[in-house]
Amino acid sequence: MLSQLRQILERVGDAKNLTIAMDTLVQQTKLVMEVDCCTIYITDENTRKLNLMATEGLLNKSNTQQYLNFGEGIVGLVHQKGEPLNLANIAEHPHYKYLPGSQEHSFNSFLGTPIIHKRQVLGVLVAQQKKPRLFSELEESFLVTLAMHLASVLGNSGLRLQISDNSLATALHLQGCPASSGIAIAPAHVVQSILTLDEVKIEKSQSISKDILLFEMMVKKCSNEFSSMALTLKEQLSKEAFALFDIYSHVLKDKTFLNAIRAQINEQHLSASSAIKVVASDYIVQFEAMSDSYLSERASDIRDVAQRLLYHLTQQVDDYIVLPDKFILIANEVTLSMIASVPREKLSGIVSIHGGISSHVAILARALGVPAVMGLSLSLTDLNKQLIIIDGYAGAMVLFPDASLLKHYQQLLNEENDLKTLVASGEHKEAITQDGFKVDILLNTGLNANQHGAVAGHFDGIGLYRSELPFMLTDTFPTEVEQVGVYQTLLEQYQTLPVTMRTLDIGGDKQLSYFPIIEDNPFLGWRGIRLTLDHPEILLVQIRAMLKANLHTQNLRIMLPMISSINEVVEAKLLIHQAWNEVKYELMLTANAFPMPHIGVMVEVPSSIFIIRQLAEQVDFISIGSNDLIQYLLAVDRNNSRVSSLFDSYHPAVLQCLKIIIDNARCYQLEVSICGELAGDPIGAMILLGLGYKKLSMNANNMGKVKYLINAVPKHELENCVELALQANSGVEIRTIFINYMDRKGLGGFIRAGK
Ligand code: PEP
Ligand code: MG
């Protein structure tokens, strides 16, 4: 049956829309299982109905009832219990209720299984037969397996909702993960980043000169990319694999190929992507027809190169594409560069089909104060320009909102703005609890290139500068001189304040286009300090640049990411000293005129929690990276929307770790701060304060809120809450302790219900 299962799934996967997919599934299942009827019911939580979506066997006429209410009939029972039900004679079951107008009473045996995705019953899959009999175990497991696959098709790759589908006239609520709080109401701007050659529509150019320019730029970008990839991978690849890059480069230098594309733009007035499709397809057909196997395989090289050109073309979000005044950016996988390349004032919200609440895209969204939702089941087809609502508190998105929904969300938006005004009134104050405990509020920066200018209000320094951005915005590793410029701007801008710069932390979900790292487990792989210790030439240049940039301001602190053992610290310090000596020698400085900045490490790999004594001997400070710490502690990929509900920042184990860290840091007199997202979260900040943390580093967007809260509570009350929380059994309990407390203090508005 396995091959039949695969066959059914492939056919369903090929279907163009939801209706066809469901029809295909029931037809094929009926055929393969040799039953008389197969039906799919889909759950509608709003109307509390199980809608008849597809059937092969039931009479489906105008007088057939199209739904069962929740709890109604055997199908309702399967839905309610969330378990399969196998009955030889359905009419004997006390729950039996037949679907009016469907002729269902001609069937006796019944096998129904729930379609479950992320613990939610999305519907029920049913097989029925006239002959009264129990279905075999094999049949039962076949249907269950099919339902599981169906659930992941419906759930993960999207319900394949066809927006143009006439049946969807009412508002549609979709549930995802809350990645950045706030409400947004605006038209969707869909960025289809992984457009395949076959999917490109043939369109006329809107501006021939721009299309030519764009095309030339993309060719250059791809050539650079292929050559730098080749350079990087030279040592790691076999000769044959390495030769591939040569072939790619040749295609990109092939004048006949390039001129043919230019001609399509200039003479046929096609857009750049259409021209690539027309010419590449032509080449592919010609190559494929060749009898020589070497030559016929060149078709796939042409396809790859064309695909890469398209990739870069579709990643282009610039003034070439006319953006609406306000929009919600939507893509299968929103990237940092997508966000960086659209004007902030137009960006009302972000929806990423894939990705989790602690991904760097989510962090950037929060830093920018842009509401964001991730991990939704949705197809992007026909979504562009549709008016949508996103609720970043609840992680929800609403399609086709009606007038009353729009009014409701507009009201929430107004309330949110009122809260912002309240918070803004205290922006220039220091953060001191009502019983006099001063908290240093530090800024996280770096992911947002434009942030350096305007951060309103008082803060006590930069607690985390993520130095990746200058590396992400270039086509090659930035030079020392370039880096000096970037770092100097930052150090001078905050010259009266300490600025903690983290060394390059790529790997995981932060990739450089010119230095791709392909690994099975990138978060457990070549990341952060591991990579830069293996490439001292990168670390040395960066440290030298930081030290040079710091010459006049002397406010630099250097921080090392992803430390898991003391050896890494020792090795990194050797390199830092080497860089320091080199700069001292190069600029002919005395040691007095050139003090060594303070050096610290991030505590984000659980092992580092248990070597604080040893760390205290090596470094001046530690800073907790709660995003990664929680990811590694709970074994939950911070980017994976499937498990994002398990990414529990208030998990009792997280609380215990935070306690161990502060207790040890105190014991060994080591400065400790926290720069993960937990510090900027209202409940997180309250927990940290109650534990005794007094340096919280966060996005500018959260500062006002956290300061307002700190100024509104006495620390000893938070200590009492923490005392209780340390006894709690679950994250929910811990969260409830703090919500109740904040409610009592009249601060409940800072935590929205439903989150
Ligand atoms: C963290 O892991 O908490 C952190 C601050 O670093 P990043 O989010 O950049 O990985
Ligand atoms: Mg981290």
Can you describe what's shown?
With 755 residues, the protein is of the alpha/beta class. It has 5 domains: 2-160, Beta-Lactamase; 174-191 and 319-401, Glucose Oxidase, domain 1; 197-314, Enzyme I, Chain A, domain 2; 461-611, Alpha-Beta Barrel (TIM Barrel); 626-674 and 676-755, Phosphoenolpyruvate-binding domains (TIM Barrel, Alpha-Beta Barrel). 44% of the residues lie in helices and 16% in strands. It is built from 25 helices and 23 strands. α5 packs across α9, α22 (682-691) packs across α24 and α24 (715-725) runs antiparallel to α25. The longest helix is centred in the N-terminal third of the chain and has 26 residues, at 208-233. It binds phosphoenolpyruvate (PEP) and magnesium ion. Magnesium ion (MG) binds next to α20.
Descriptive tags:
755 residues; alpha/beta; Beta-Lactamase; Glucose Oxidase, domain 1; Enzyme I, Chain A, domain 2; 5 domains; 8-stranded mixed β-sheet; 25 helices; globular; binds phosphoenolpyruvate; binds magnesium ion
Helix content: 40-55%
In whole angstroms, how far apart are the ends? 43 Å
CATH architecture of the largest domain: 2-Layer Sandwich
Described by strand count, sense and barrel closure, the largest sheet is: 9 strands, mixed
Radius of gyration: 29 Å
Q: Which molecules other than protein and nucleic acid are bound?
A: phosphoenolpyruvate, magnesium ion
CATH homologous superfamily designation of the largest domain: GAF domain
Total beta strands:
23
For the record, the count of structural domains works out to 5
Structural class, from helix and strand content?
alpha/beta
Strand percentage: 15-25%
